[in-house]
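Example record

Each entry pairs one chain with its bound ligand, PBG.
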Amino acid sequence: MLHRGRRLRVNESMRSLVRETTLSPSDFMFPMFIAEGENVKIEIPSMPGIFHRSIDLTVQEVKDIFELGIRAVNIYVKADESVKDNTGKEAWNDQGLMQRTIRAIKEACPDMIVMPDVALDPYSMYGHDGIIKNGDVANDVTNDALVKMAVSHAKAGADMVAPSDMMDGRVLRLRQGLDEAGFHNVGIMSYSAKYASAFYGPFRDALDSAPREADIEVPKDKKTYQMDYANRIEAIKEALWDVEEGADMVMVKPGIAYLDIVREVKNAVNVPVTVFHVSGEYAMIKAAAERGWLDHDQIMMEQLMCIKRAGASLISTYFAREAAQFLKDNQK
Ligand code: PBG
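C-alpha cells for the complex follow.
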C-alpha cells in the first residue's frame, strides 16, 4: 500500500496539526430581536433560547457576548402594528426602536460592530420588503425608502448596514446616499444571494412579518425579489453586481443547504462572504436535540465548521452565543 491517509488521523494532536479550518468567536455574528418596553424578555416559540429583548436587556446581552469574543450583532426590531403602513416611514424615524437600540448598544459597548437590518418588512402592513404598487413590490421607490432608512441608521451610529431586501440596484443607491450624508466609513454588507426559502419561517413568526392577506392585490410570497433556489449561476451574477455597486461584504442565505453557492461566490468575489445560518436551520437542530435524536453541541459545531470551510468569513447564527461558550469551555 502506497498511501495511508490514516497516519494523519491517529490522534487528536496529529489531527490538530493538519486541520485546515478553525472556528473562533469572532467568526460569528449574533442576530438579535428587539422589542419595546423595559425588562422585557420573551422567548420565541419556534426558536428555543432566542428572545425578544427590550433595549435595556439587549445592551446587557451585548456586553456579555462581547466578553465571549463575539464582535458583531445583526439587529431586527419588532415594530408595533400601529406603525406599519405601505410607506415604511417608521423605518427612518430617528427616534424609532431601531435607532434607539443602535445608540444604546454603541454607547454601552462601542467596539461591538452593529449591523442593523435594512428592509421594510417589519414596518410593512403587507409583510413585504418594500412598497406595494400595482400588485407587486415596487423596486425603485423602495430603494428611495431604503436610503433614508440606512442614513438614519448611520446617524444613530451603525458601523455597517445590512440590506436584506433584494431590490435591484439598492447597493449603489445606499453607497451614494451614505456618502452624500457624510458616512463614508459606514459599510454595506449586502444580502446578495438571498433565496426565497421556507427556512425563514420561524423568523417571520418572531417579527410577525410574513406576507399577509390584504385589501389590495399583494404577492403571496417573496419570489419576485428573492432568488429561485434552483439557481446557481444567478447567485454569482447578483454577488458580482453588488461588489461593483460598492458592497464591502456579500452574503449567501440560507446556509447549510446552500454551501455549493457559498463556495462559488467565494471563488468569484474579492470581498468577504457572510453566510446566514437562518432561523429554520436553528429550529431544526433544537427540535431534533430536544427529542434526543441528535447531539446538540456536536451538530451545532459541525454545521458552523462546514459553513466556514465552504468559504464564510463571517457566520450570522442564532448559535453565536452557545458556540462561543462551547469554544471557551472546550479550550485545551
Ligand atoms: C427580511 C428578512 C428575513 C430574514 C432576514 N431578513 C425573512 C424574509 O426574507 O422573509 C430571515 C432570517 C432568518 O430566517 O433567520 N428582510
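The first strand starts at residue 28 and ends at 34.
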